[in-house]
Specification:
With about 170 residues, the protein is α+β, with helices and mostly antiparallel strands. It is about 55% helix and about 15% strand. The chain has a four-stranded antiparallel sheet with strand order 1-2-3-4. A hairpin with a 2-residue loop joins β3 and β4. It is globular.
C-alpha cells in the first residue's frame, strides 16, 4: 500500500482531481457554451483569443497521429506515464514535488480523456503579441508546463535533506 500512497498523496490527489475537473469544465464551456466549434475565433483581449485546434499529436503538435492506432498508442502512453508519475508522487518527500507531479498528472489525464472522447486534444487558448503567436493550448497544457517548471525548480533549489555549503 505504501508504494501507491505516501505522506503527500492526499494533497496530490486533490490537485490531480482539481486540474482534471477544471480542464474538462473549461473545454466544455468553450466548445459548447461559447460554441467555439461553430465559430472561427473569439477575440477576448489584445493579446488573447480562443481559436479551435484539434491536436492529434503531443505538445506543440509533435508526433501527430492520423490513424486510430496512433491515437490509442498515444492515449495508452499518456495513461502509463500518469500512473508512473503517481508512483513517484506517492514517494514525494515534499509538498512542492507532490504538487509539481500532480499538475502534470492532472493535465495528462485531462488530455487523455479528450483523446478518448474526441480522437484528439481540444486546444483553444492562443496568446499573441502583434504578429508573434504562441502555440494554441488548453488548461491541461498549462498545468503540465507549470508542473514541469516546478519540478525543475524543486530539483535545482529544493531542500532534499542535503547539507549545503554556505
Amino acid at each position: 500500500m505504501s508504494r501507491f500512497w505516501g505522506p503527500h498523496s492526499r494533497f496530490a490527489s486533490l490537485i490531480v482531481v482539481a486540474v482534471f475537473i477544471l480542464d474538462q469544465a473549461s473545454k466544455a464551456g468553450v466548445l459548447f457554451g461559447l460554441d467555439l466549434l461553430g465559430r472561427e475565433q473569439i477575440h477576448l483581449l489584445p493579446f488573447f483569443d480562443f481559436v479551435m485546434v484539434w491536436n492529434r499529436g503531443i505538445s506543440y503538435g509533435l508526433f501527430e497521429q492520423s490513424d486510430e492506432t496512433g491515437r490509442w498508442l498515444l492515449t495508452i502512453f499518456m495513461l502509463v506515464a500518469a500512473a508512473l508519475l503517481w508512483l513517484w508522487a506517492a514517494r514525494a518527500g515534499t509538498r512542492l514535488l507532490a504538487l509539481s507531479l500532480a499538475l502534470i498528472i492532472g493535465g495528462a489525464l485531462g488530455n487523455a480523456l479528450d483523446r478518448i472522447i474526441y480522437g484528439a486534444v481540444a486546444d483553444f487558448a492562443r496568446l499573441f503579441w502583434g504578429e508573434a503567436s504562441w502555440y494554441v493550448f488548453n488548461l491541461a497544457d498549462a498545468a503540465i508546463v507549470a508542473g514541469v517548471a516546478l519540478l525543475l525548480y524543486d530539483s535545482l533549489f529544493g531542500d532534499h535533506g542535503k547539507t549545503r555549503n554556505r
